[in-house]
Amino acid sequence: MSLTCQRIERIESRFDKHLLATRPLLEKMQRCVEIQTTERDDDDDGSNSMDRISELPEDISHHILSFLSQKEAVQTCVLSKSWRYIWSTRPKIEFHEDCFNGNKETFMSTLDKTLQGYHDQKLCIQEFRVDMWVDHYHSKSISLLEKWISRVVINMRVKTFNLYMLAFTQICKLSQNPLDKVLFKHLQTLTLTLVYIEDETFEKIISCCPLIEKLYLNSCIGLKTVRVNKGCNLKDFVWLMYNIQKDLIVEINAPTLETIKIVGIANWFHGHNKYFPHLKSLYTSEVRLASWSSDMFSSNYMPTLENLTIQYCYDLKEFQLSNNSIKHLTVISSYEPIDKVVIDAPNIVKFEYVGDIAPSIAFATTSSEWKSDIRLSYDVCFDDDASSSWFFKLNKLLKALNQSEISLDISRYHGGGRRNGHIADNYGGLCEVVVVEHLKLTGYFPSSFPAFLNCLFRICRPRILGPCSYANAKISGFRGRDMQVTEFFCKNLLRGRKRRHYVWQQDLEEVSLECFDKSGREWHRIRGTTLFARTDAASKNPYGEQELRFRLKWREI
Amino acid sequence: MVTTDEKGPLTAKKKSVIIRSCDGDEFLVSESAAVLSTSLKKILEEKEDRLIHLSDIDNKTLAMVIAYLSTHADDGLSDDLKRSFDQEFVSGKEFDVLKYLVLATDTLQVTCLCYTVAKKMADIMKNKLVEWVRREFDIQNDYTPEAEAEIRRLDAWAWDDRQLEDD
């Protein structure tokens, strides 16, 4: 380093005022930035020539204004004369009919006037967004839209086009479908919400947009077949259909895709391409995948897939997932659990499962540390047999997840009957205890709780139990039941541990109580006696509700 | 980190550049940080000169930009950490400081910092009364009251139903 530094000063001392905010990284920075400096007084820089935001170059003002809503941008026109027209030339149009308090005429005339201004000055709009209400009786708004869509898209070179048509009836559509006639030469992002388009329009859009990268279609009624062919540059594709419609078909062949999200009862056919070399994130919900082979998610077809969510996809009762790139895997299923699943994802970071019954999953060996998060409902158990098999399946799942740090959350909102918890002898012998890092139980009925816990602790031993709510006052309903369960824990884990009502108490070596400190946002240990002292002095207690958890140490088995 | 430094001739060992602000202060910056600015990158590609003089950026602003560039050039920091650095970087700064920053990032073509700062400036303006913005940004109102009323009337919808706060 040949620089002859007369004096290397620490940035901190000179520029501390501005750099204080970056203190956490200051040290790193100091290694990189060394200042050679001559003596200079910094205090007199207020006399610099530029001191008004009004003197910023127009493109910077536009950049700043592009983060504001249309309304906020318009308001800047009264700041001063130099601000008069800046908003009206910013490269963004964003009109929400909601802002016009139901005054449709004003909304339409304002939109028309504003767009006319851009049109007359031959200005470009990068981002176009209109959210409007449409109904049968108001064909004016539709014809206005029809008039502008092609102009906006062609002449104004829109890159991001976002149309949200809130319809009172579902059959409302653009009569001549102006989207049909437009060559979207510059379009990169297209979002259509509740816009009626037909298959041909969609095909046209896809084939006429050489630059389109992001396509979001939300409840676009009329569209029965979504076919994305090879040859386009699509990176993000989102298709959501919340209306129940028959025979919807999704067929995606674009190998450029990085994100795919398909939500709705549709058949997803794999078409002629199954290979997605860039796909990072895949989310499917309610989609029928019958035409796919059971190894569709494997590295062979999706070699870069990191996030996979499979929700209510009942065709996928059995599948193999052999994928080296998967980091997050989420499976959500309700009454029909996935059945035979083999997962070989050596780099998995988190596995999540949400459902009623524990699914049957086998995991191959994983190399790194990972977490699993299992959320189940005990509500499905109506008798001893169901209960018995529920616990047995859970035990099998926990054994399969043994390599991970397990969090288990079991809820139960319907009580009574014989659904207390039961493990039949023919299963009992097969069960073995698995260590669970976190166990959370919600919605329990105090009367049936001990029996349930007896079963649960036969198959798993939590290190941390909770969080559970605790309050001094009596609360009714579900929350009240949660509190009673917490009382049960306090009684049997802390106070009455030596009395040993339950078999599992023998294995408990140590219990400590922790309380969540909301201000510090962390757990800290408290003494059980302090808690009880608070309980006993309920009337004077200033603490109210709190979150507790128990840290348990079990005897090695 | 050492291994990446030793790779290839282009990312060769800690090459550095001297950048001089308009008030004459000089900053030693690693080349990997400097090239995050498109303008500096172009200059460095065009000439061998290791001293770059920036005639319209003052020392305070330049120090901040360099701090930003150096942080973002550091391979040892995670993206999350860089994001939170960005947040802290613009928080609590006075409007003038942000204004010089946004101008500097525009000159130096540091797109991501320009975005962060412009967004921050917009956030400051959001949900504020016109009077507040004028005061805070030191904008002289050169409208006559009649002219202002007339302009407001033209786009009356934008002033309907306001729920603005004046701090």
UniProtKB/TrEMBL annotation, chain A:
Organism listed in the record: Rehmannia glutinosa
Full protein name: F-box domain-containing protein
Superkingdom of origin organism: Eukaryota
Listed InterPro entries: F-box-like_dom_sf (IPR036047), F-box_AtFBL13-like (IPR053781), F-box_dom (IPR001810), F-box_SCFL_complex_component (IPR053197), LRR_dom_sf (IPR032675), LRR_FXL15/At3g58940/PEG3-like (IPR055411)
SUPFAM superfamilies xrefs: F-box domain (SSF81383), RNI-like (SSF52047)
Alphabetical list of Pfam families matching this protein: F-box (PF00646), LRR_At5g56370 (PF24758)
F-box domain ranges (all copies): 56-96
UniProtKB/TrEMBL annotation, chain B:
Recorded metabolic or biological pathway in which this protein acts: Protein modification; protein ubiquitination
InterPro entries listed in its UniProt record: SKP1, SKP1-like, SKP1-like_dim_sf, SKP1/BTB/POZ_sf, Skp1_comp_dimer, Skp1_comp_POZ
SKP1 component POZ domain residues: 15-73
Residue span, SKP1 component dimerisation domain: 118-158
Pfam families: Skp1, Skp1_POZ
Presence of the UniProt keyword DNA repair in the record: no
Keywords: Ubl conjugation pathway
Keyword Kinase on entry: no
TM region(s), chain numbering: none
Family, per entry: Belongs to the SKP1 family.
Subunit structure comment from the entry: Part of a SCF (SKP1-cullin-F-box) protein ligase complex.
Function, in words: Involved in ubiquitination and subsequent proteasomal degradation of target proteins. Together with CUL1, RBX1 and a F-box protein, it forms a SCF E3 ubiquitin ligase complex. The functional specificity of this complex depends on the type of F-box protein. In the SCF complex, it serves as an adapter that links the F-box protein to CUL1.
Protein name: SKP1-like protein
Species annotation: Rehmannia glutinosa
